[in-house]
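G., the chain you wanted modeled:
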Amino acid sequence: MTQHRQVMFQHVILKGDSYQIGKTQADVIRGIPGFSEFLRSGAGKFSPEKFEQISAQIDRFCPGLNAEIQGLADGLGISQQDLIYYAYTWLPKGNCSHFALLPSRTTEGKTLVGRSYEFGEKSEDLRLCTMRVKDKYAFIGSSVLLFGFADGMNEHGLVVTMSAGGHPVGAVEGMRRPIQDGFQFWFVVRAVLEQCKTVGEAVELIQQIPTCGNPILMVTDKSGQAALVEIFGANKAVKRIDSHSAEQILFATNHFTLPEMLPFRDPIMAHTQTRYDAIQSRLGGTQPVDKAAIKSLLSDEYPRGLACHFYDEYFGTLRSMIFDPQAGQIEMCFGSPVGGDWYHIDFKSGMKTYPVQLPLERTTPEFWQAVS
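Predicted structure as C-alpha cells:
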C-alpha cells in the first residue's frame, strides 16, 4: 500500500512597492522558525565588495528586487547581506517537462503552454504568488527562495517556464559547480516576467543577463510566438517559432536538443528521454489537440505520462500547469495530478490554501540510467 505525506500549498497575493512586499513576507516567515533560520544563515556570504558588485547587477537586470529583499531583512531584524538568497542566486534545481503549442496545433485556436515541475517538497516554497509590484508588470508564478520564480505568466500574456538542462547547478553539495559568475534561473525568470511583454523582448533580456547554470527556458506570448532557450553558462542558443514556422510546437525535458548546445550536453538519463518521447508521441504530429489531451499527458503516471511520485528522491510532481495566455488564466493541479483536483487561477483569484496528500513511491535503477 502506497504511503502518503500531507503538505500545504498556498496561493498568496503580494501587492505594493518593493520594500512593502518584503516587509509583508517577513511577517509570514517569522512564523516558520526553520525557514527563517535558513534564510538568515548567511551561508556562503560574500565579501562587502562582492556583495556591492552583485547588488549592482541585480539593480541593472531586475530593478526593485534589492528593495524587496531589504524589506524582508528589516522585517527579520538582520543585515540584508546575511540573507542566503544572494549566495544561492548568484552562482536549485528542477527535473521538469514543458511544452508550448501554437494556435494551429490546438482545437481552441489559441496558444497553450503545459508544464510539469518535479522536485522534493521539503526544499520548495510550495507557493503560487500573484505579484503586483509597483511600476512592474503583474504576474502569477511559483516562487523559489521567496524572491525568485520557476515559472509564471504576466498581465500581458507572456509565459516563462524552465527545466534543468542536465545535472543542475547549485550551491549545495552534490550539485554542479557554477559554470561562470552569474545568476540562477529563478532570477532570470522573474526579471523577464516583470519587464517583458513579448518573446522578442524576453529573448533580448535573457541574452543580456549573465547566467551561472544550465537551464532550459521556454518563453511564449499571446501573439502566437514561442522560443526555446538552452543555456550553459555564457553559451546560449535560441530556437523561435511562429505561425509561419514549419514546427508549431516546442518542448523540453532535462537535456539539450539544439545543435549548438550538443557539446555541453550531459549523458541523457532514461527518465528525461522517456518524458521527451511521451510529449512527442502524444502531442507531436499535425493534428490539433485540446486541453483534455494536454491534461491527460500531465496526469498520466510515468512512463506513459509526466506525473512522478518520487518525492524523497527529489523527483515528485509538485505542480502541473496549463497556461492560457490569451485568457490570462492558469489551470493548475497542486501535488500529484493522478486523480488530483485542477483549479482555474487568474489575476482575480483570491488567496487560498490547498492541502494535498503526496503518494510516496520509489524509482527503479533503470530510471537513472544513461541511455546516450
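The chain has a mean pLDDT of 94.

Shout if anything looks off.
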